[in-house]
Amino acid sequence: MPVPHDDPTAATGPVARGCDPTAAGDVPGGHDPASRRVGAARRGRDRRARVLPPAPGAPRITGPAPRTAVVGGGIAGLAAATALAERGVRVTLYEREPVLGGRLAGWPTTLRDGTPVTMSRGFHAFFRQYYNLRGLLRRTDPRLERLNGLPDYPLWHRSGMRDGFRHVPRTPPWSALGFVALSPSFPPRDLTRMRPLAALPLLDVRVPDVYDRLDHVSAHDHLESIRFPGAARHLAFEVFSRSFFADPRELSAAEMVLMFHIYFLGSAEGLLFDVPAEPFPAALWDPLARYLRRHGAELRTSTPVHSVVPAPHGGFTVTLPDGPRHHDAPRHHDAVVLALDVAGLRRLVADSTRLGDPAWRAGIGRLRTAPPFLVSRLWLDRPVARDRPGFLGTSGYGTLDNVSVLDRWEGEAARWAARTGGSVVELHAYALPEDADLDVQRARLVAQLHRVHPETRAARIVDERHEWRADCPLFPVGGYRDRPTVRTADPHLVLAGDMVRTDLPVALMERAATSGFLAANALLERWGVRGQTLWTVPDQGRSRVLRGLARLARRP
Fold it and tell me: What pTM was estimated for this model as a whole?
């Protein structure tokens, strides 16, 4: 059995220096996916990245292996299952859907022309700051050759203003200064109106201090207090905040400020990112499923869990719903990892009446989901213009938040486009009203696509798929204290997911992966086994001088 991975980001070699031994140069641009099959292993890790070693212990379980149920097969559940199975724990992973991946799952469908393709919930950016997620993917792809690097993170406003991050320095504070100097969204007149003292704390973000200071303020109101230029707010910062699928007026300012730190003001990795070279199942989850099975894990897809009941003499009984498809007897497990989305966690805890104490259960019940979002994928009968970017963030185009041209970087879409002479375009709309008319929203997205890429007006839609979802966590103003932590009052019951508090500078997919590894580490520590080494971006501002100024600005 292979030795467990100790460094989640390095393919081989020592890790004490905090560098990737395969780092070498930049990911090239271009539009041919085959020409950009360059692994992000060529990206060096920030020299100030923070290492989080696990508690000391044996490399693997000795003696009878404990049985652990992992409920949920998204990123968090897969990370937990991987760390546990590698160390000899008997893992059973339960996933209600027929496929793995959670919100990054993909499933087969057939187009009208008979082509089998993969549909998903849409584009996701794999930033170079996602050290722990990328470490999970390295289990089956050591050099991350199944990821393609995109050459820029372009932003367009309907007014004609355009921005991007390709030419912005990556290392703070030069990244912030370079962005302000190069961006048209920071006109000199508006810069003079800003309140620099109010903005200084952005340069020294710490967790959980940032929540103590800013969780009671909305992202919108915090930017107003700094007097950020309106153009910059709409073009850049609202794009970031809407990555949480929430209106900036509902989103906690602490989450937005933490995002600035992770992606821009605290990390030297920059704002460029990678995308899977093939659909999610082929590039990510099918190989990881094979890896887990080789390590003895049992993967039970299409198997929702009804309840988790503490057993009288320790451990838990996992029960499945009644019905002909789920006729298994309840199973006993020594430990449980709950790695569910908000709705799934609320439902499971409500049905597991003996799980947790009243305060914990009440906090779970108060968790909220973000407003709905719509993903529309269109197969067009002609290509978009050659100079269109593979991914584009948009603002001012009604409900349209971004446009992806999948055949620029995904192999399956590129093969269909090459064979038919068409193109595959994906449109996203976040934070829509719950009572929105789906047909109206679809039509609006297509109309806005025509404004963004006018050549698509002449294109015929050969086929289309639409995903309307409302299952992402909401991080509302004042909601931080209600969010559960990885550990619970029962040391053998742990939680994982992107809604879970980790008190680390991580967010989105990286929070899911990190929390999954933290959940596994908490159990492994109880069993005397060394867990997973983790990494994060720096947990404070990079400059001593700027940190001092930020402290002065925070004083009453």
Answer: 0.90
